[in-house]
Automatic annotation (TrEMBL):
It comes from Arabidopsis thaliana. Residues 276-439 form the Helicase ATP-binding domain. Keywords: ATP-binding, Helicase, Hydrolase, mRNA processing, mRNA splicing, Nucleotide-binding, Spliceosome. Residues 30-72 have a biased composition (Basic and acidic residues). GO terms for biological process: mRNA processing; RNA splicing. The lineage of its organism: Eukaryota, Viridiplantae, Streptophyta, Embryophyta, Tracheophyta. Residues 19-29 have a biased composition (Acidic residues). GO terms for molecular function: ATP binding; ATP hydrolysis activity; RNA helicase activity. Residues 461-637 form the Helicase C-terminal domain. SUPFAM superfamilies: P-loop containing nucleoside triphosphate hydrolases. Its EC number is 3.6.4.13. This is RNA helicase. It comes from the Eukaryota.
Length: 906
DNA sequence: GCAGATTGA
């Protein structure tokens, strides 16, 4: 059996190495360290084994493998949707399982020999793990199943006698010449190549690609990172692209004709008729296509050409405003009409449609709003849910609703469009709807993993960027980092390192990008890179989906992002740095191949990738506060929420919590039915607590002030601009608004009014370290709320001097969010007791009022209440007698509390 | 003595 030979061989290699190193002079300290490391490794491998054994008993094919298979299958007879549909999953599953089982069995049997009595050095351990990873990778990427068992060992180079250096060298070079099939079958040749490569890298030669710059300089980075090319994110239609370029002699034609030719060059054009047939035959269709295939712009036009628009509008939803606008503009151009006539878009604050509009692009939230007024979507003949794979909160809700509508309205066509992952899941959800796949247009991207785990991803990212800069041909680099802080740190460090290298390297332009960055600085990333220079974009998640940067050739992916999670029990939100999912790793990788073939450097090992990363990101609906979702579903007439058809149901605890909250706010009655107040609250596109605050403000005659506060609160913390070097100034500027310790809500009101008094001056914002963009948004929201007040018959009334009535309105919305001071200076929430603190950024963080109402709880380094305002405990009984009893409030006035720490409300 | 990723209505 060949496996046996392999074992023998490996053992030889290992013995030799350990003899060399074991020279008997090892210190006690080293011995202990070695032992500890070995124990750690053993522990790790044991855990892995149990995980494997589990897999062995219930073998499961990952989504990725399924996709792989389908892609391969469709390559055989491209575009033939019939053959795709006929294909048998059972048979394929069976085959895969058998194979998987064999592989795993092999591995597990293979492992124990490692832990005999022999001592393993760190180097050996790493080597073994490395080999194992490669082996697994290669098995995975093997195309022909038959070949799996027959890989061949390379000649050993460390046997007695002469070593054939020439042959050895040939192997290492071959890797770069082509990834031939023999090479792929041979994991240890790869290893050799890697070692050679590593030695070569130890002295980093500079300018090898460019004779003119290449002097005799040698740069050595102290901690070079080793990468290994593991796989390729295949490009689709890469060849086609080359030929499909519009012809040069089109000068004589009109712009309109050229647009029509461009349309025909899109990959989707080939499948036009098949697609239309499929739409005709099926009510629901899942469409899977890579980005750049033209599905968003073309499909609605095809449907229009096929006459669907005669029966009703074609609606296409997008998760983002910008996308809806720009796509609509493009399609209007292609159809030769004006935007807003036949083709229009509808987003918050902007409705660019008319009665003539037949193709309507909109944000998904907008369609949800429309559903409130038109529950059967009667004016639409087709609904397209685009970018479904992003699984935003609103697309998830739409799925459930739209599925229901489709059952009631057989004439409504439903298209769900998504990138590759999860297609089967969508299909299952929509009653086994057929899947229509077609290729996109993307260049291939090489994927490289590190050979060993990196302890500090930021440091690793910096080194990688510098290595790319010095060694790789020109092309821009995109680095994904979790947040603003990390971006700033990396930027500084990179600048410092570049200064150290002086003029011997090419110019490196560093561009940070994150959502909170002022927009004039954001624009920098889109400026073309000067000749001979290289641009490095340091980005958060924003570059993963929201914006695309052309010209990116290299992607550096440390594998982390920040993710919000919500604990329904405590009502606490937290933002944590978490490992990304495989799906988003693929998404990040794809960013390198938009305009030319590229490379992606992942700062984690292949082993981490396959074993530690989740397949898909947890959908938003499972990690967020559902109160406003529940309210809008209730107002759509969906009563039994626990049975609502969610694709991934949120935790029922979260649902129940939301129902309880809405009941406490008076939006629902004991039967769970929407009350009149609830109906009014649902009109506002806000969190129910904020809506309640507005509805109540009618009673206290201060709706004018309250909507300003609500608008500011819904913008959140991005109002303030606090650059690192000017933190003191920024904090001082804030103090003006907190005069008299009025509380954060009133401070927001003061900020808004001051800005309004300066006639919405940009200058004023700069002076006070406030973000203009956020303020403009607040103004838009405020305007919208003002318009809605009329609809729910609330008069705009102002009562600026009665701060207590404003406070009472706030309490009326946020009474479940109250806390009282403890002896030690911390706070305790009243209803579901837990210890919390006032956020240091709050104006009241030094004042410590006895009772406070807070806007939200966040968990960072401590449990913090963000945005707090003082209240009188009597108000709770007055405003929410159903929620608070006298005993809840009595404690406050008890003698235990030192009188000095409380402060009377003005 | 903080430290906010990203959308959307």
């Amino acid at each position: 059996m060949q496996v046996v030979i392999v074992r023998e061989d490996k053992r030889n290699v290992r013995r030799k190495v350990s003899e060399d190193e074991d020279d008997g002079t090892e210190s006690e300290e080293e011995r202990l360290r070695d032992q500890r490391e070995r124990e750690e490794l053993e522990q790790h491998l044991r855990e892995r084994d149990t995980a494997r054994t589990r897999k062995l008993t219930e073998p499961k094919m990952s989504k990725k493998e399924q996709e792989e298979f389908v892609r391969r299958d469709s390559a055989v007879d491209k575009g033939d949707i019939e053959s795709l549909r006929k294909f048998s999953w059972q048979e394929y599953m069976k085959k895969r399982k058998q194979k998987k089982v064999l592989e795993l069995k092999d591995d597990i049997e293979d492992e124990p020999y490692l832990f005999g009595d022999e001592k393993l050095t760190e180097r050996e351990i790493r080597e073994f793990r490395y080999k194992r990873e490669i082996y697994e990778l290669i098995k995975k990427s093997t195309q022909e199943e038959d070949n799996v068992g027959e890989y061949r060992m390379p000649d050993a180079y460390d046997q007695q006698g002469s070593v054939d250096q020439e042959k050895r060298f040939a192997v290492s070079v071959q890797r770069y010449r082509d990834m031939g099939s023999a090479e792929k079958m041979n994991p240890f040749a790869e290893q050799e190549a890697w070692e050679d490569h590593q030695i070569e890298n130890a002295a980093l030669k500079f300018g090898a690609k460019n004779k003119e710059v290449s002097d005799n300089y040698e740069f050595v980075f102290e901690d070079q990172i080793d990468f290994i090319k593991a796989s390729v994110l295949a490009g689709d239609n890469y060849e086609d692209e080359m030929h499909a370029k519009p012809s040069q002699d089109s000068a004589g034609k009109s712009a309109f004709h050229m647009l029509q030719e461009d349309r025909k060059a899109l990959p989707i054009y080939t499948y036009r008729d098949q697609l239309l047939n499929a739409v005709k035959d099926h009510q629901v269709l899942i469409i899977v296509g890579e980005t750049g295939s033209g599905k968003t712009t073309q499909i609605p036009q095809y449907l229009h050409e096929a006459g669907y628009t005669k029966l009703g509008k074609v609606g296409c939803t997008q998760p983002r405003r910008v996308a809806a606008m720009s796509v609509a503009a493009r399609v209007a151009q292609e159809m030769g009409g004006k935007l807003g006539h036949e083709v229009g878009y509808s987003i918050r604050f902007e409705d660019c449609t008319s009665e003539k509009t037949i193709l309507k692009y909109m944000t998904d939230g907008m369609l949800l709003r429309e559903l409130l007024g038109e529950p059967d979507l009667g004016s639409y003949s087709v609904i397209i849910v685009d970018e479904a794979h992003e699984r935003t909160l609103r697309t998830d809700i739409l799925f459930g609703l739209v599925k229901d509508i489709a059952r009631a309205r057989p004439d409504l066509k439903l298209l769900i469009s998504s990138a590759t992952m999860d297609a089967e899941k969508f299909s299952d959800f929509f009653d086994q709807a057929p899947i229509f796949r077609f290729p996109g247009r993307r260049y291939p991207v090489d994927i490289c993993f590190t050979t060993a785990p990196e302890a500090d991803y930021m440091d690793a990212a910096i080194t990688t960027v510098l290595t790319i800069h010095v060694k790789e041909p020109l092309g821009d680099v995109l680095v994904f980092l979790p947040g603003q802080e990390e971006i700033e740190a990396v930027e500084e460090n990179l600048k410092h390192k570049i200064r150290g290298l002086g003029t011997k390297i090419r110019e490196l332009i560093i561009c940070p990008i994150y959502a909170n960055l002022p927009s004039e600085l954001q624009a920098k990333i889109f400026e073309p890179t000067p000749e001979g220079a290289r641009k490095v974009v340091l980005a958060t998640n924003i570059a993963e989906t929201s914006l695309t940067i052309d010209g990116i050739k290299y992607v550096v992916d440390p594998g982390f992002s920040k993710m919000k999670s919500y604990n329904p029990r405590t009502g606490m939100e937290s933002l944590l740095v978490t490992p990304i999912s495989k799906a988003s790793a693929t998404q990040r990788t794809g960013r390198a191949g938009r305009t030319s073939p590229g490379k992606c450097y992942r700062l984690y090992t292949a082993f981490n990738y396959y074993n530690d990363l989740e397949d898909n990101t947890v959908p938003e609906i499972q990690r967020t506060n559902l109160a406003s979702v529940v309210l809008s579903l209730k107002s759509l007439g969906i009563h039994n929420l626990l049975n609502f058809d969610f694709m991934d149901p949120p935790p029922s605890e979260a649902l129940i919590k939301s129902l309880e909250l809405l009941f406490a706010l008076g939006a629902l009655n004991q039967l769970g039915e929407l009350t009149k107040a609830g109906r009014r609250m649902a009109e506002f596109p806000l969190d129910p607590m904020l809506s309640k605050m507005i509805v109540v403000s009618d009673k206290y005659k201060c709706s004018d002030e309250i909507i300003s506060i609500a608008a500011m609160l819904s913008i959140g913390p991005s109002i303030f601009y606090r650059p690192k070097d000017k933190q003191v100034h920024a904090d001082n500027a804030m103090k003006n608004f907190h005069v008299g310790n009025v509380g954060d809500h009133i401070a927001f009101l003061k900020i808004y009014n001051s800005w309004k008094e300066t006639n919405y001056s940009t200058q004023w914002c700069y002076e006070n370290y406030i973000q203009v963009r956020s303020m403009k948004r607040a103004r838009d929201i405020r305007d919208q709320l003002e318009g809605l007040l009329e609809r729910v018959e609330i008069d705009v009334s102002s009562n600026a001097n009665e701060l207590d009535s404003i406070r009472k309105s706030i309490v009326a919305g946020f009474f479940p969010h109250t806390a009282k001071l403890q002896k030690n200076g911390s706070y305790r929430t009243v209803k579901h007791p837990q210890t919390v603190h006032i956020h240091p950024a709050s104006g009241l963080s030094q004042v410590l009022p006895r009772w406070v109402v807070y806007h939200q709880l966040v968990l960072t380094s401590k449990e913090y209440m963000r945005q707090v305002t003082e209240l009188k405990p009597e108000w709770l009984i007055e405003i929410a007698p159903h929620y608070y009893q006298l005993k809840d409030v009595e404690d406050a006035t008890s003698k235990k509390m030192p009188k000095t720490s409380g402060r009377a409300v003005v």
